[in-house]
From TrEMBL:
A Pfam family hit: DFP
Sequence ranges assigned to domain DNA/pantothenate metabolism flavoprotein C-terminal in this UniProt record: 185-390
Gene Ontology biological process terms from the UniProt entry: coenzyme A biosynthetic process; pantothenate catabolic process
GO molecular function: FMN binding; phosphopantothenate--cysteine ligase activity; phosphopantothenoylcysteine decarboxylase activity
Keyword list, A-Z: Decarboxylase, Lyase
Protein name according to UniProt: Unannotated protein
Amino acid sequence: MTGSSREVILGVGAGIAAYKSCDLLRRLQERGYGIRVVPTPSSLNFVGAATWEALSGRKVLTQVWEEIENVSHIAIAKETDYFLIAPATADLIARIAAGRADDLLTNLVLAANVPMLIVPAMHPNMWNNKATVTNVATLRSRGYLVLEPEIGRLTGSDSGQGRLPDTATIISAFDSMTGNLRDLVGVKLLVTAGGTREAIDPVRFIGNRSSGKQGVSVAKAAALRGATVHLIAANIDTESIPGVEITHVESTDGMRRALGESFPTCDILVMAAAVADAKPKDLQSQKIKKANFNTIALEPTPDLLAELAAIKGNQVMVGFAAETSDLKTSAQSKLLAKGLDVIYVNDVTDGAIFGKDTTQGMILTRSGEDIELKELTKDALADILLDHAKRQLG
């Protein structure tokens, strides 16, 4: 297992509806799942491996004979938490029902002992054929969840029951199977994002390279899971996120005021913003001329996490640490010093991860968990952090 409990094999059968699974992949990623696409060899006639690799960010294999040294059909099976096949053709359903293992996908079906959702798509005559009816009944008797195809227009002029269900229907069924439901309903979540700026004069400021992407991903994920979400955004362009209240701030003092108003009533605080460590002692009301711009006297900014820890009640606090060395040691120190329950630390040497959609690092918790995460999307990390925060909340 990866530690995220959100690794999914997306199997793709050789049907024209395979193109619709491109959108399905994206929607699953947005919900925090890590996706490995395993197409059948014939399905590559509809959507090529290059497309799946570009969308998933992962190498695509179709045959057992690829990467033999890794024993891929066993290695991939061990890493997955859930299995989703869409579209599943009549042939693919028949091969799974018969226990065949003649490509990588069917090998993985046999090797992966995880919850499985199968989404059929085929011509109505094939769906209603007695062989298919029997095969579907066999799969359901083994505990597989098999959706009913939708009724509608198919390839050419034909219509009937055989269309691939729309993405929302598949996602809803998959969420029901995985338990990735609105599990944060009633939880008030406060999240900060972006980087604070400390003015030097009307033109210049002290800032940092935070893009705010991780904090925004947390806000979106929490809203999807039913939480009441308040995002304090420092110098990022996000204007609206469905289900999220947004307060825009610029400086550390502005964030301090916004946190002071909202923290006492929240259940979880995710402090993803990069707060400036220092600010000028004297703010100049006029632009400093270049010839006079020699030195800046600095003073520390308030330690926002330490201040909040001092008034913390039952809230769960999640923090971040951007380090260039001794990641684990630095994170453990910050976890204790700042009164955090969960911390995520990553290596930002040479500006790594800033502004990117992916990240990698380590999660530490007050209860002693220590989880190393290989490269994953910031959307996926958001859900993993929320999982840990929810557990700490109890």
